[in-house]
Amino acid sequence: MINETHNPDVLNCLANLSSDEVFTSPKIANEMLDMLPKELFTNPKTTFLDPCCKSGVFLREIAKRLLVGLEKQIPDLQERINHIFTKQLYGIAITQLTSLLSRRSVYCSKTANGKYSIVDKFTNDCGNIKFSNCKHIWNEDFRCEFCNVDQTKETYSRNDMEVFAYEFIHTHNPQEIFNMKFDVIIGNPPYQLNVGNTSGNSSKAKAIYHLFVSQAMKLQPRYLTMIIPSRWMTRSTEGIPDEWVDEMLDSKHIRIMHDYLDAALCFPGVEIKGGVCYFLWDRDNAGDCLYNLHDINNIVSKRTGNLDFLNAGIVIRDNNSLSILNKIQNIEGQYINNDENNFSGVVSPKDFYTNKKTLTSSWKGFNLNKESDYNIKYYLNKNIHKAEFAWVKLDDISKNQDTISKYKVYIPAAGGTGNDEQVLGHPFVGDSNSVCSQTYLVIGYNKNYTKEQCANIVSYIKTRFFRYLVSIKKKTQNGPRMVYQFVPMQDFNESWTDEKLYKKYNLTQEEIDFIESMIKPME
Fold first, then answer.
1. Exposed/middle/buried for residue 137 (C-beta within 10 Å: 0-12, 13-18, 19+)
2. Which helix (H) or strand (E) element contains residue 79?
3. Stretches in the chain below the pLDDT threshold 50
4. Rg, the chain, Cα only
5. CB 443 within 8 Å of CB 409
6. CA-CA distance, 156 to 329, in Å (whole number)?
7. The whole model's pTM is what?
8. Which of 85, 115, 255, 343 has the fewest other C-beta atoms within 10 Å?
9. Residues 6 or more apart whose Cβ sits within 8 Å of residue 179
10. Is 28 helix (H, G, I), strand (E, B) or coil?
11. DSSP secondary-structure letter at 432?
12. Is the Cβ–Cβ distance between 277 and 230 less than 8 Å?
């Protein structure tokens, strides 16, 4: 019975702190470590830093490898343990709680110099796993100058409690934390923080994982590997600066990347829109990147080359997508980076009619009945107001009044994701003499389409072909005009079906089956 008893690794059994601060399993930690050169684990001078310790799993798994790799050089086990844990392994915990957990995992004691610690050379409680009760630095706009959270939000301004001011990214000089350089930086950073702005009942979150990557690169380690959301792979997503995305896409130092369409393959039970990826950044060896895509069934496809294969400001994640886009370009020419030739050129910016005061999603200054002054049709958020449209005055519309008289297509600015098989919310043809709330984007605002042409645009949007091309770039609910970059323009004097589009672009049955396996019909 004793031999048959299952004795699981405790680090596989931890409940996550939140959907944005998830514990890394030993399996994933080791897969990340497998990307590193093996000789690092046989060198007694190699140093490792985890700047965002939660469970201590990375340091623990590194220690296991060093204990084997240094056995011949340091035969005495206790001497080897002392050397590895005092001279080679370093960590920065993200909270007081995770500092205790990490020390327990790494030193087998919540204090590094405790009675049960496996290391007998530490003279302090924390050992090499630090935690500082760091504070936010507020600027004149009441925002933290490092992570941009709101000073008025009680969570981040309270005293003597966790305020989520992570030490590694709340300093201009991260090299001063340990006053040393590191050969390897590895970790799973927190992904986002609530910045305090709200809309209805939902909170607005700001991505911060890229700040950890940037700080790590600032330290110039020989190797950097982190596991982060894959949403960064598209420019202008979730508040990450385009410059940062471009730097990552153009980098010749990212030599290996594993990209998971389904984050549950790495973090079971956790939903992370757009999936996750981990990468190996090599300071001294620039070159092509070996890109490995793990689909929802964990079947891996590989390619080698630039991350931004089409120079489109995005990682084209699937080789099937590259094949289809190349076929479209054979017909349309270089349409992807030309707004005149791709569909994004007819899609409005967000908040097209609202001035943030009138015509917002929750604004109530409309009239449900048409009257002499209230004579412009207003498509509103029907989930909030329980009506599809109402009527507004011309004075309520502070901008883009020249488009009011045109026939247009309206489509929800948010709805669906790149992974939910529908991708977009339902489009519809709006009447002439109409506007919309910020709930919608406006298609055809800069053209003079007829009502029939607008209906043909709707037929195009509803095709699986159209929505598949959008899904390449759209990874979250938000669907700004840029997600239409890969969709070619058509002649809207005719309606469109998938069959016509498949034929026009010479798609194979295999490519058709692939699209239809990803995208469901839209009624």
1. middle
2. helix 77-87
3. 1-2, 6, 197-203
4. 27
5. yes
6. 49
7. 0.82
8. 115
9. none
10. helix
11. S
12. yes
